[in-house]
Structures are given as C-alpha cells and as structure tokens.
C-alpha cells in the first residue's frame, strides 16, 4: 500500500509540475469546487487607477488646479490623475470637445479622442484622433500643463 501511495504522489506531483508548478499539484487533481460568483463594479475598482499620461506630479497638480477651479473636481491636489480628476476632465471634454461617453473617470479611447481634439486645437498635437495615448498625445498634454503653471488651462 505504501508503494502505491508513493507512486500516486509522484504521478500527482509530475502532473502538477507539468500543469504549472508544484504549488498547483494538489489543486490540479482536485475536483472543481463551487465558485461563488463575485463581481466588482468598475466604480469600486476605479479609485485605484491613476493615469497621468506622462505628466509629472507637478504638471498633474496644475491640471488638477484647473479642474478644481472650473470643472467641479473636489479631490486632493496630489499630482495623481485618478478617477475623480478624469471625471472632471470628461466634463470639460463633454462641454467643448465632443466627448459623448459616460462621465466615469475611465481613460478609455473616447476620453483620449476628445483630449486629442483639445490638444490638436491648442497644443500642437499633430497625430490622428485615434483614441490611443501615444507619445504625441503625451507630449502635447505635457505642453498643455506647462503653458500655464498654476492651473489656467482647460478654459
């Protein structure tokens, strides 16, 4: 019986290693457990997202000052463009640059497209309006933040 157990453990270990590592050896052979479905809303997860699009902390603070002054940003001036900063930015973009998506603080393609329209008009963005925050978009966003330290952009 001991030899059979030892052989079974060896086979289980080999299968576990082949399936992705020794740590999974036991679970790889186990019967599937009932999984309780858990969902996390985007709103619950979003506060952890910081998307500065290449801005330094000082530049992002300038953007936040402008958002606070004109676009109902109520968060901290901390140089971290998180969900609330982007919600305020989306309000600005909705008002002036054809942003038509949700005011959700998520920096998705539609947010970036509207930002690119703004940057093309005033800050030398020369790329396509494609919703991709590439190097040209980031460079123009940095120029926008640098033009008026202290938060006078976004008017």
Short description:
This protein is mainly alpha-helical. 52% of the residues lie in helices and 0% in strands. The termini are far apart.
Secondary structure layout:
Blueprint: H1 2-18, H2 25-29, H3 42-45, H4 57-70, H5 83-96, H6 109-122, H7 135-147
Description:
By secondary structure, the protein is an all-alpha fold. Helix content is 52%, strand content 0%. The chain has 7 helices and no strands. The chain has helices at residues 2-18, 25-29, 42-45, 57-70, 83-96, 109-122, 135-147. Helix 4 (57-70) packs across helix 5 (83-96), helix 5 packs across helix 6 (109-122) and helix 6 (109-122) crosses helix 7 (135-147).
Characteristic terms for this protein:
155 residues; 7 helices; single chain; 52% helix; mainly alpha
Mean pLDDT: 76
- Name the helicity range: 40-55%
Secondary structure tally: strands: 0
**In whole angstroms, how far apart are the ends?**
80 Å
| Mass-distribution shape | globular
Largest sheet: none
